[in-house]
Structure formats: structure tokens, C-alpha cells
Amino acid sequence: MIAVADRNGETEREVQDNYVQLRGFLTKHAVASDIDLLGLLRAFPAKDANGQPWLKHWFSQCYRAQPASSAVVLSFCDGCENPVSGQRDCGTPGCTGGPVARTVETMSEYFVQNRAVRRFFHDPGLAEQRTFAALEPEFGQRLRPW
């Protein structure tokens, strides 16, 4: 993630903003579509010596691909947005949400975060968002994302 942020920014501020955007993507997208990936590729176009986007390397380490011929309906936890497969709760520590069905628009595939990314980026990112939301009225503009 840091390599993608660095190679797509010229100043320290741009690199930090890129990092915030990429980390935010992991927090908000436990499941991503190929359409989401195309949007990221437009936002982070830097390529390696072989002409492959750095972002694609990062993305393939964070997600595993699932084929889909069109939109798919998946079950998600309405508390933490993690995908669930029919169980009553998602199993995420501290989450009290329940399963809800959502449609994911795709062209040919969608991507599911691997377990390590979900455990070390997605779930802590959600906890940070809740903390920021609770502190925002008191601290306002002094808070900086990640």
C-alpha cells in the first residue's frame, strides 16, 4: 500500500493522501467489484518496469477474485460490512450486526478481501471510524485520518 501511495504521489502530502485513500478503500470494501478496481486504476496509474500498474499488484495481494457473469447478490453484515455466508452473526469481535442481502454490480468478477486484510485493515479501520465519529464534535478539524 505504501509503495502504491509513494509511486503515485510527488510530494509528501500527495503520498499521505494516497495512503489515506487506499486504506479507506480497504475499510469500506470487504468486497469490491471489477468496476471498483477500474476506478482505482484510473486514480493510481503509475506502472512498474514491466508496464503493470503498481495498484494491481497491491490489489491482488489484498483480494481474491471470484467469477461473476453479471451482478451478484451477497450476504453482508449490516454492522461491519463483512461478507457472511448464512450464519446469524458475522463473527467479528464486538459486532452485533446481522446478515442483509446486497447486490454487487460487476462486469466479469468481484473480489473478496483475504482474511489477513480483513483482520488487520478492514476491521481496525471500522473501529477507527467509530472513534473519529465519537471524537469529532469535540476535536473537529484537529483530527486527521490515519
Describe the structure.
The structure is a single chain. The chain is an alpha+beta fold and 146 residues long. 46% of the residues lie in helices and 17% in strands. The chain is built from 5 helices and 5 strands; from the N terminus they run H-H-E-H-H-E-E-E-E-H. The protein has helices at 2-7, 12-28, 34-43, 54-62, 115-139, and strands at residues 31-33, 63-67, 72-77, 99-104, 109-113. The strands form 2 sheets. The chain has a 3-stranded antiparallel beta sheet. Helix 2 crosses helix 5. The longest helix has 25 residues, at 115-139. The two termini are 13 Å apart. The relative contact order is 0.17.
In short:
With 146 residues, this protein is an alpha+beta fold.
Shape: flat
Largest sheet, in brief, is: 3 strands, antiparallel
- What is the strand tally? 5
Number of helices: 5
Distance between the termini: 13 Å
- Name the average pLDDT: 87
Rg over CA atoms, rounded to whole Å, is: 16 Å
Strand content: 15-25%
> What structural class do the secondary elements suggest?
alpha+beta
In the sheet with the most strands, the strands line up as: 1-5-2
Share of helix, binned: 40-55%
Low-confidence stretches: none
Secondary-structure element order, N to C: HHEHHEEEEH
Oligomer type: single chain
